[in-house]
Each structure stands twice: as structure tokens, then as C-alpha cells.
Design brief:
Radius of gyration: 66 Å
Number of strands: 0
Helix content: 55-70%
Oligomer: single chain
Length: 234
Amino acid sequence: MPTYTPPGWPAGVHPPGSDDFESTAVGWLLDVVPPDYRLHGVLRRYPVALATMARYHSAACVEGAREGYRTARTELADALPPHAIDTVLAAYRKEGARLAATARAVGLVERALRGEIFTPKMSTSTTAQSRTAQSPTAESQTAPPRTTESQTAPPRTTEPQTSQPETAEPRTAGPQTDPKVANPKAAAPKMAGRPAARDGTARTAARAGTAVRQRAERQRPARQREATPGPAGI
């Protein structure tokens, strides 16, 4: 079963976990470091130590290329013509990219020598496709929420019922009393008018009685009037 190798893995090194992985990794790392490093047998016996030294060396090479690129125009302005300086900067850019790629590859080899196992990482597009395949209703789930009309009806604007306030008589907690008795001023005119009505009625009745008697006397026969004795002494 082939072992996975991450992007940037050096071409001359066998995949991690294979039989020739360490031997090919040591040969490639010795090509990265300066040639004098081959004189030290300890680096061949312990490939992790060689990978650590190669990591520091490659990182220093990248930093040196960056610093040389930044200061090239200032340091070479008096010694080289402008077009030559542009060529030097192009060489820095090309070699700098190669040194950066080598530094990344050294880091991967060192991690593999330390026992790390690399696993493939799914890209964003692959992850989205797998999620869509697993969930057929993904489109409906990711769709924006539908704006449905609110089921709550708007408040009805009814005309305010303005009713006349009822003018009810105030109720008191005490015993109920007649308003006529409670207000003697209001009852006074009615009580004062009663004796006058009674006097008028009596006078009218007296006048009617007198008229009736006079009428009866007129109708009496003359004999009765003569027979009727008058007052004494007449």
C-alpha cells in the first residue's frame, strides 16, 4: 500500500514508512548542507540530527537571500550599471524561491524522521462536493429562509367609542337619606306653597256655599219668608 506524501516532498526521497526511506533521506539531506558535513559519521547514524542541522542551514540561506535582495541596489549602485543590478535582483528572486522550497522540504523530511504520519487533507471544493453528495437536501438547508407573511393580523383600527359619562348620584357608605330631607333649601319652596293653595280652596268653597244659600233663599216662597220669624224686637 503506497504511503501518502504531502505536497512539497522532495523527489529523491522515498515515502515515509518504506524500506529505503531513511537512506534516501540521509543522502538528500547531505546534498542540502555544505559538503564538509559528510565528514561527520554521527550525522549518518542519526538522521534526525542531520535533518535538524539541514533545517537551520536552509533557513539561514533563505534569510540571507532576502537580506541581499533588499540591499542589492544600495550596495551595488556604485559598482554595477542599473541593468546589471536588475539582473542580480532577478537571480535573487529565482534562487530565493528555490531555497524557500528546499527549506519546506527539509521540514517535511524532519517531521517524517520523527515519526509523524501524513494524511491527505481535503480541499475546500472536495469537502463541499462530499457534503452535497451526502446530504441531498443541502440546497434546501442552505437556502435563505423564506419570508412568509406574518400570521398575526394587523391590529384593527376601530373608532373609539366615546360615550357620555353617566352622571350617577354618588353613593355613600352611610344610610340612604331622601334628597329632599337632606337638602332643606330645595324642599322649602314646595312646602311653602301648600298653605296658600289650601287657603284659596277654602275661600272658593265658602263663596260657593254663600251663593248656594242665596240662591235657595230666592227660591223660597213668600209665605215661608213671612212665616219665618225675624230677629227679636223687630
